[in-house]
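lol ok so funny story. i was supposed to be doing the assay writeup but got distracted and ended up predicting the structure for this chain instead. priorities right. anyway since i did it might as well share w the group, maybe its usefull for someone
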Amino acid sequence: MTEKIDIKSLNEAELCEIIVELGIPKFRAKQIWLQLFQKLKTDFAEMSDIPKSLLPTLNEHFEIRTPQVLEKLVSRLDGTEKYLFRLYDGSIIESVLMRYEHGNSVCVSTQVGCRQGCAFCASTKNGFVRSLSAGEILGQIESITREHMGEEGFRVDNIVLMGIGEPLDNYDNVLKFLHLVNDKNGLNIGYRHISLSTCGLVPEIKRLARENLPITLSISLHAPNDEIRSATMPINRRYNIDELIEACREYQAVTGRRISFEYALIDGVNDSVEHARELAKRLKGLLCHVNLIPVNPIKEKNFKKTTKNNLILFTNSLNNSKINATVRRRLGADIDAACGQLRNKRMQEASQNN
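and the output, tada:
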């Protein structure tokens, strides 16, 4: 039996082509597209303008893969919502809804697990399973939107590709997702409201630059030199900091966009004033912003977050060197909102029960 088509990963032109091949009138493709991507329907039978006579054909050839909400946690501190989703094959991923004065942001996963092995990241602890399709990435935003159907004026305004997985390790599906979520007949979220975070896959950063999409590129840097970065981020052994920064300069030259650098401050590892000065020299001349993050404690690695005093000194040192730096506001601290934490907890519980 032929595997059904993941319809949410098709753009309108692709859907139209397949619909015509199935002998269905071409105009039905537009109707189905709007029902799926604008009205967020999860079943062909729910589509009021699609005749029932077409349902057997549609159900035979297509599958509407909708992430199932396994668990939803809501922070009592700031209203942040953490979602644990089960996908069609039983895989588990996470997404987070963050509420800001400027709008609602959703952090999405792009893979089930991660193969990059960053020492301070919970997402990589259980290894890599598979990459998500474009429709599965989009489905996280749509599922969260459906959860708030009764909330007047609710809309997802911003997207952060910073959940489980390395987005540029799933390049083609992520690129297709970006086009789908930006489509004016769908969620219509502007590229300038989308941030993509990468640990530093240099060839893919250069490839992304050639797409010339006005999204924000966010680099998980976390170290001022190769010695520290290679010890905590295996990707640095393939592409060192000089290569990474050069790729960032190329990206900026093409897109004209400011680049964001994520820097998790680990007590006694990368949080001294000397480290801040070294980092400032690396970034000199780049239009950039440094997002400082006191690291979430990780027992297995004996990592502790930096002290408040070191955080202040580090921030001031960067700003005094004309490198714009701010401390990230931590959201959802009471619900394991950092990516990978809730999934790991669920997997550990499942392992203990087996």
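The CA atoms of residues 70 and 85 lie 5 Å apart. Residues 241-255 form the longest helix (15 residues).
back to the writeup now i swear
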